[in-house]
Amino acid sequence: MMRAIFTVAAFALAMPASAQERAPALNQLGFEPGDPKVAIVAVAGDPIAWTLVDAGGHTLARGKAQPYGDDPASGEPVQRIDFSGFRTPGTGYRIAVNGRSSDPFEIRDGIYAPLAKDALAFFYHQRAGVPIEARFVGANWARPAGHPHEIAKCFAGADQRGLQWPGCDYALDVTGGWYDAGDHGKYVVNGGISLWTFLNAYERRPAAFPDGSLKLPEAGNRASDLLDEARTEMEFLLRMQVPDGKQLSVPVGPSKPLKPGQARWNADPADFATINAGGMAHQKVADRHWTKLPMPPQDDPEERLLYPPTTAATLNLAATAAQCARLWRGVDDGFAARCLKAAQRAWAAARRNPEVYATNSFDGSGGYGDSDVSDEFYWAAAELYATTGEGAYLAAVRASPHFTTEIREPGWPSTATLGTITLATVPNGLPGVEVKRLRAAIVAAANRFLADEAGNGYRIPYVAANYPWGSNSSLLNRAMLLGLAYDFTRDAKYRAGVIDAIDYVLGRNPIGTSFVSGYGTRAMQNPHHRFWAHSMDSKLPGPPPGVLSGGPNSTAMSDDVAAKMKGKCAPQKCWADDIRAYALNEVAINWNAPLFWVAAWLDSRT
Ligand code: 9MR
Ligand code: 9MR
After folding, report:
1. Nearest CA owner, ligand 2 atom 2
2. 109 labelled catalytic
């Protein structure tokens, strides 16, 4: 067989010692033939020679790497190996440098299709209230329903700060939805961005996951499987809405001025006042106390409680229910109408109670506290406007500073970009020039992300002096914006940026590990998860394929494993594949959602 050698270069004579230590890191899944292909090797000095070898050890291509120099993100000098010119489909390829071979990889079209499906299947695994059935997930991952009849009352009494909560005179049936992460909390704030990401993927390509394409109990209902999974969460969010006419006593207004040394997230809340809470959404339903690991959801011994409504949760409901109202129209008109009513009620309730913030003061669940909800107001107004075309929502959009400010990657506390994406992509009443301006703002953000690739050795579209909790999701949310920039411009450089992001997540990183379970020779295995806790109890399974670790975190190294690494790791190396490491290696719905979005985007070459 003829084999083309597309680059010929002399081998370097010198062999720096560090090159002996680590093999080149690359996307352990592989590449589509036409995509850029890059490996990174941690080695100082002059350009180092590399070869591309096949499974039989034959050299198919060779070249010299490009030295990047010292890389602050990984804490090492690195060189970049570009073998994009090699396009021949095949399996078992490796990149070798000084006798050290990378993990094997594949080159073929459609390489991201299984990842998109598995990243989506994660959400079925996370379903609360229903059994996870062996016929869909296999016996290994099947489990009985967790919290199957979740009729929850409001938290009452003293919280961890000593604040006294009066509670409420009702209970809500909040069965269902997705567990947030490795814990069993169900949070409206984080549910919102996760659900939005799903529905946005559907809105971009409604035919991509037709009925029967996934293994779901809803197969055969003739609705998109993506919509079916999304509906699980939408129905739950609707259940979290406070009945009309309910008066509740909650802290109202901005938090008190910070005391010396007090962190912003820990600020003392405002004084309690009584509000008309009808139409608001409770922040979360969760355990009264943290449960230990492992803890399959059906064994959870804790009392489940509703935690006080917040403006942020209410606007998450308004935004996603507005999406629901336009996307289920024609699929299930009754459901669409129910969503629209809920969205309008939530919007009105948030306007009435614009400053009700989470207090981050309860045991047993995460805070998801956010003291700036101007972005949530903008997001909800944008979704409601796209759905209804009504002037009041347009006025709120126009009045918001988020309509014109620079775009950044979204996250659960910063949701403005979600509204802008909707206004820039969903047909709506905005004048064409304004839609163009919003698209240009997304492209400008994508350009900044591409410029960031020069600022780190592994060439990812992300630069930060410190990596935040869930950094992999920050990167993937940037990749989503790069994908949209490609959609708007068809410029290949944006697809290349998306590839740079997914390559990092799937192994092109200084740890040489794929952060997605089941994807790669050395993939994450021990997430912080109460059911996928094999390393603590051999009778329990590890993670199913397609689950994303939060990733390196050099800012809030609060768990025992992270605490020991603190101050000793470069940002990209502050990570461990350890079930105890909840600040580094938890999984979460708002992290798997952009993994899904990006994998589905990569699989939709148009
Ligand atoms: O297991 C919890 C994880 O899901 C959360 O993300 C994390 C941060 O809120 O907290 C974890 O729970 C720990 C708690 O915060 C402190 N005590 C030990 C808990 C279990 O590891
Ligand atoms: O993703 C959240 C991150 O931005 C916060 O810094 C962190 C600490 O408050 O909490 C993360 O969210 C966790 C949530 O509070 C509880 N479920 C697991 C989430 C992921 O770790």
Report:
1. 469
2. no
